[in-house]
Design a protein that fits this description.
It contains three helices and 23 strands. By secondary structure, the protein is mainly β. It has four domains: about 140 residues, no CATH class; about 80 residues, Elongation Factor Tu (Ef-tu), domain 3, CATH 2.40.30; about 80 residues, OB fold (Dihydrolipoamide Acetyltransferase, E2P); about 55 residues, no CATH class. About 15% of the residues have low confidence.
Length: about 375
């Protein structure tokens, strides 16, 4: 019978990437190239059914979110926080003229005093929402309109904070931040200087991981995907891929763009206390197949016209140890056999491939059966 023109594939190294000491399984169709010299031994391996699992082992650097600059509105700075300090909504962020400037949560800075008789606006709604969140919302409807209930809520908040009960929130009384709590990342001014202009910068207090990935790895990741992170202590903790950045954005260097990355969120922030910002190993499960028909990936040959094939030995199997029982990919082993006996015949059959993991490939279609012996490079 005629045999398709084939090229023996190169070794397993062409499939995977070695990151952080772990073999990274590729789920995309692999390499093509020549391998094996004319005198190379012709070994065989048994096609077997087993459970195949693929995973990526990546590295994540711990980091805080990008800092946000905070701008003051005037007066003399009489107290500033310390870098690393965490301040929650309703708490004093810094002092101006001896009076605390309190952090409120909101997307817009105050551009006017919030008081009776003012026109409707989103600044009113921001203040009312903060008052309600802080427990001063009895009878208060959170909307764009300043009402008598708004004034009562402001007075109640001022009383609890030890402020003069004016019923008015001035621009310099509060400062809007973008999160329920913020971590001070830097100080931009000095005590005694004017509070006009940049005063400090802040980030969200939580730490997350940032994984830089290749374009091929990016196709295997998705928001919401569960991952396992190995901590410096050797223990492991679950985490989640929160966001994907495909990269390609402009940088200060016109010849370069940003690289793809993925953000990892940790549900238990207490595990990260005192760690600093080290790089951690992240394992991502990317797929699996039960009862899969598999052969060593080196058994694949590339067809000259495209696609893949395997070379099946026609002769009876030589005396050898029986094929191993199915095993999980964690063992890292493969079904090895004996050399092809002298004079044995073989034929090549096209196959379709599926999952590739742990140096093995799933055969999803083709005239290959469990127990068949396939030729692999010696």
């Amino acid at each position: 019978m005629s045999t398709p023109s084939v090229v023996r594939l190169a070794g397993v190294a062409a499939l995977g990437l070695l990151l952080g000491g772990g073999l990274v399984a590729a789920l995309w169709q692999p390499w093509a190239g020549a391998g094996g010299s004319p005198g190379s031994p012709r070994q065989t391996a048994v096609a077997e059914r087993t459970t195949l699992s693929a995973h990526l082992v990546l590295s994540a650097s711990l980091e805080y979110s990008a800092p946000t600059a905070l701008v003051g509105v005037g007066g003399t700075l009489t107290r500033l926080p310390q870098p690393g300090e965490v301040v929650g909504a309703g708490q004093a962020l810094y002092e101006v003229d001896g009076h605390a400037v309190v952090a409120f949560r909101g997307a817009r800075p105050l551009w006017r005093s919030v008081e009776s008789g003012m026109s409707d606006g989103p600044d009113v709604q921001q203040v009312e929402q903060n008052l309600a969140d802080l427990g001063f919302g009895d009878g208060l409807t959170v909307d764009n309109t300043f009402t008598a209930a708004t004034e009562r809520a402001i007075r109640a908040w001022q009383k609890a904070a030890g402020r003069e009960r004016t019923g008015v929130i001035e621009q310099a009384d509060v400062v809007m931040v973008s999160a329920p709590a913020v971590r001070i990342s830097g100080i931009s001014a000095l005590v005694g200087a004017s509070a006009t202009g940049p005063v400090l910068s802040y980030t969200e207090p939580g730490i997350h991981g940032r994984m830089k990935v290749t374009a091929a790895q990016l196709t295997q990741l998705a928001p919401g995907m569960a991952v396992t992170v190995r901590l410096p202590s050797g223990s492991e903790t679950p985490a989640t891929i929160a966001a994907i950045d495909p990269g390609g954005a402009a940088t200060s260097d016109p010849a370069k763009t940003t690289t793809p990355s993925a953000r990892v969120e940790f549900p238990d922030q207490s595990l990260l206390e005192g760690l600093g910002l080290p790089a951690l190993r992240v394992t991502v499960g990317t797929g699996g197949a039960e009862n899969a028909l598999v052969v060593p990936v080196t058994a694949l040959v590339a067809l000259a016209g495209g696609g893949y094939a395997v070379e099946i030995v026609d002769a009876a199997d030589p005396p050898a140890t029986p094929p191993p029982t199915p095993h999980d990919t964690s063992s890292g082993s493969s079904s090895a056999g004996a050399s092809v006996p002298a004079g044995s015949r073989s034929h090549t059959v096209p196959v379709e491939i599926g999952l590739i993991a742990d140096s093995r490939v799933q055969i999803t279609a083709g005239e290959l059966d469990e127990g068949d012996r396939v030729v692999v490079p010696g």
